[in-house]
Structures are given as C-alpha cells and as structure tokens.
Write a structure and sequence with these properties.
Elements: H1 2-12, H2 26-36, H3 40-47, H4 56-73, H5 76-94, H6 100-119, H7 123-143, H8 148-161, H9 169-174, H10 181-197
Helix pairs in contact: 1-6, 1-8, 2-3, 2-4, 3-4, 4-5, 4-6, 5-6, 6-7, 6-8, 7-8, 8-10
Length: 205
Amino acid sequence: MLRLAITIVAICSINLCLANDFEFSPDLQKAYKNTFCGKFNKSHKILNTTENAANGAAFYFLGYNNFLKTVFSEDPNLDKNLVDSHALLINEIEDLEAHPFKRYALAELYMQQSMIELRIGNYLSGLFGLRKSYLLLEKNLEKNPDFLLSKKTYYILQALLSNVPEKYKDLVELLGYRTDQYVALKELYELQQSLKENKEYEFFR
C-alpha cells in the first residue's frame, strides 16, 4: 500500500513557479520534461548550473527529480541519500522570501522526504515530517484558499495518512491529522479536473 501511495504522489506532483525567487525558466521547463520522461541525469545536469544557484525553483525541481529517481529505483542507498539531500534543499528554500509557492515547495519536499523515511521503516521521523508538510499546507490554504497546488498536496497527504500501519494510527490522531481516504480521493479527482481546465497549468498536462 505504501509503495502504491508513493507512486501516486510521484505521478500527481504538478509544479509551477510564480515568484522572483522561483523563476520558471525555459531550462527548468526542459528539466521538468526530462524528469517526467525518466531522463533523471539530464535533468540533474540542467538544474545544477550556476544560473540556477539561487533559484528556488531549481532547488524544488532538483528535489522532485531526485524523488522520482529514488522511488522507481528502489535502491536502499538512494533512499538514504535522498533523506540527506532533501534536508539541504529544504534549508536553501527556507532562506527565500515568504511566498505561497515557498510554503508549497517546502511542504512537497518534506512530504517526499518523509515518504522515503516511511519506506525504509523510519515511521516516527516520517510521520513528524509529514506533520511539517501538513501544517505548511494548512497555512497556505488559510492564507491562499485558491492556490490549487496546495490543495492537491493536502489531499494526497490525507490519503497517505489514512494508510499508515495500524500501530501508528493512534499517533496520527494524536498529531491532529484529519484523514478520510475516500474524501481525499474524491477531492483529488475533482482537483485534477480543475487543473486540466486551468491554462496556468497547461504545460503540466
């Protein structure tokens, strides 16, 4: 079930850069296409250029590229590397100015990192990482209720947390998560339709 949930997150991840600190350049669009086509090394090479050294979007896409590569490789060594490298990317984005996409990017990176933690059996650190992601998304939705990408990740998290091992369900409730797998999946389907109809997200169809 966890492997299925991770795959759903990988496929559903739709990304857009909207601020000066998150410049969505033609090179990044190319990197995104390479990542989604499984050309992870080509994408990594584009993202690790001096031109992208201070671009939050590049940090975010680099995390996304590493996450997909790790998910589909199922290599334990890559799992550990991703947990460490995501921590560095999170620190880079934390230093950027406040913006809805900053909170969204951080939430996505925390979620990706935590899902790999869960995959390797680090359930406590994984659940606490998901909590960080959850709180960032709640704050973003409170301040920017029409920010569709935050809604998408919010309901992915709800679906994921509905499927944690039984022995951790009490901890999930204690941490204050509101989870309903069927509601989350319904909302995700409706959001996917909204995203398809929104020209702002046309590139990611």
